[in-house]
Amino acid sequence: MPVAPRAALMAFLARHQRFLLTTHINPDGDAIGSEVAFARWLRAQGKQVRILNDSPTPLAFEWLTQDDPIDVHEDALTERLFSEADALVVLDTSNRPRIGRISFSLDRHAIAVAIVDHHATHDGFGQVNVVEPDKAATACLVFELMRAAGSPIDTRAAEALYVGLATDTGYFRYSNTDASAFEMAAALVRLGVDPQAVTTRVQASAPPGRLRFFGEALTALEMLEGGRLAVLEVGPDAFERHQLTGADTEGLVDMPRAIAGVELVALFSEGKPGRVKVSLRSTGRVEVDQLCSRLGGGGHPHAAGVLLMGSRADVRARILPELSQLLAALDAAPARGAAGA
Ligand code: AMP
Ligand code: MN
Ligand code: MN
Beta-carbon neighbour count of residue 194 at 10 Å? Predict the structure, then answer.
């Protein structure tokens, strides 16, 4: 009989000693928070741990990494860390291309891989794959694993897990917010998390240009499909003028959710010319992950994304008709109950 994934992961962690942790490109709060908590968990067991990501840690989460530094990919460094490690743990993605340039080293090194993730759209590529799509955040999984192992969770680990949980649930507003999310939050607060202080640290980190950039994008907001589809677009010129990077769009796609009657929001973000990041959000009735998955991306039913090559006009022409079809299917289908997260 196959070993259950969680038990297989515990055995995997026990039999290795030198760990490398990584996550997806343009890491979010769940990616960084899960890595920091996981690193602390392993270090407390006397394991050697390094964290290495393709992309730099956003300013909003840097404070979490004070005692658990995160390295950013450089060819020589990545090669060295791979040769020093005997196991790789991939957090918050189970889609190999999503770990960016780290995946090139995977081809060259015979290293054991374990995945800990909550995305449904891809098969895990590890020897061990703990992929639980019903979890609101990867941080929920890490929390449950630590609890089940009876490992102490110190305040910093609790803060890291709280950041993962809070950011992936939109601060307990999105459809993935369930009773267990609140139970976990309560447990983390008892472990020393100050929600107000943590939220301020994460949210009060934007340069003024970021709000001006949001303002410009929102001014150009388009309402299509009889007001059911909100579309935002940002181009390389705006990123450059405000000295921002791709990660600075974080939160923008969620703003049109506030408009009455909106079913879907699409953001076309062209950070570098010819590379358009499509972010899709559903307010609950339409599912967008399959569409993204089909085009090489992925995500969750109500929040998904894909990176496409081409002009913004080309990418719009590929995506918008698909969104119209999803909305048309909604008209055709009988009304149903609350869609899953
Ligand atoms: P975003 O629109 O970038 O905030 O992403 C929304 C959700 O979709 C997150 O859970 C991401 O992990 C996932 N996602 C975004 N882009 C991709 C991609 N290119 N491939 C797979 N998953 C993605
Ligand atoms: Mn993530
Ligand atoms: Mn996540």
Answer: 13
pTM of the model: 0.92
Q: Pick the ligand that lies closest to the CA of residue 138.
A: 3
Structure token digits, residue 202 = 């994460």
CA of 331 from ligand 3 middle (Å) equals: 31
User: Considering only CA atoms, which residue is closest to atom 13 of ligand 1?
Assistant: 299
- Ligand 1 nearest atom to the CA of residue 98, by list position: 20
pLDDT, one tens digit per residue, over 307-329 is 999 999 999 999 999 999 999 99
All domains of the chain in start order, with CATH: 5-203 (3.90.1640.10), 209-332 (3.10.310.30)
Going through 92-216 in order, the beta strands assigned E by DSSP cover: 112-117, 128-131
Q: How far is the CA of 1 from the centre of ligand 2 (A)?
A: 32
Segment 27-85, tens digit of pLDDT: 999 999 999 999 999 999 999 999 999 999 999 999 999 999 999 999 999 999 999 99
Residues with CB under 6 A from ligand 1: 95, 98, 279, 297-300, 303-307
Residue 121's pLDDT band (boundaries 50, 70, 90)?
A: confident
**Region 178-187: what's the mean pLDDT?**
98
4 contacts 15 by C-beta, under 8 angstroms: no
DSSP 149: T
Could you please report the per-residue DSSP string of 26-40? S--HHHHHHHHHHHH
CB-based contact 108:82 (threshold 8 Å):
yes
Query: How does strand 298-300 pair with strand 275-282?
Result: unpaired
